[in-house]
Specification:
Length: 375
Amino acid sequence: MKLTTAGESHGKALLGIMEGLPSNLEININQIDEFLSLRQGGYGRGGRQKIENDKVEILSGVRNKKTLGSPLAFSIKNADYDNWQNYMAPEGCDVNKRQLTAVRPGHADLTGLKKYSQTDARNILERASARSTAVNVVAGTIARQYLKTLGVEVSGYVKSICGIKDENRYSFEQLEEAKKNKLFMLDVTAESKAVEIIDELKTVGDSAGGVIEIRVKGLKSGFGSCMQADEKLDSLLCSAVMGVQAIKGVEIGSGFCAADLRGSQVHDQIFYNGKFYRTTNNAGGIEGGMSNGEEIVLRAAMKPIPTLMKGLKTVDFVTKQPTVAASERSDVCAICAAEIVLESITAFTVAQAVSKRLGGDCMEQVIKRYGELND
């Protein structure tokens, strides 16, 4: 299973092509649009979300709501293109307007300008923008639908924002409640404090990040591999999650905390009562690069958004003079969007691992093969 993406933040549209989907998977377009809407929500988002109303249009690979086994192509129209056509049109436009040379610390601007031999960071930021993650949400929601037929589910919530932490533990079933809340936090006291901080940051033109927890329930053991480093499930998941804009750290299970504990406190002891089981899950559902049948648990650290409305000290790329970084229209906190994106990225990566092991030209074969696996 493979995803190829294209499109710029203020271009005509975002595009995706999914390859490797079996035939006869029923596609729920309404659910895709629901997750696209969730990606645009959350407290602390900026003005761009008032312009866009993301909807997916499937262009190929689906007929009468079912996949055909051929590449599934889709698009998401950028409504804001109407305001940017004079500066972004591939047919010809005025590239002298809306230039960005006051490169932003923490963004792709400066390095991208040097790498691609450009003088206008607009040619870099348009693709580097987190706007592109809408494509991942579409592909990830289709992957959810694939996994759901096997009884595998993905969910998550926000654990902390700008140092305000939720130290509680929750069952998988409780996680969906988070999406009813402003910041996808389950601890309402912590969420109220986080809202206050976001309000304060907005006033001073600053931004906030946080920590997101993603869980996968129902995946049988044996997905991934211990044979090659690039086939390990934890390696694949961490790589995919780190590929999301603003993510600077990932941990599986007890993660960094395990480094401070003794082995007897970390490793999940194994028991047998008709089947193998564990009473703890410090490994986060992955041992030796393979799923072990327990819930997969991963956490990701999201840095504050690098586009600050107050602007940070920088240098103009063209004049080489000190200046203040450009302030594109920006969010104060986009952690809810990141949570939806990370759920989607996780679902797609798990679906890739399932597809690699099971194969199958049609969903009937996939479901049969999954059902025959020992767990």
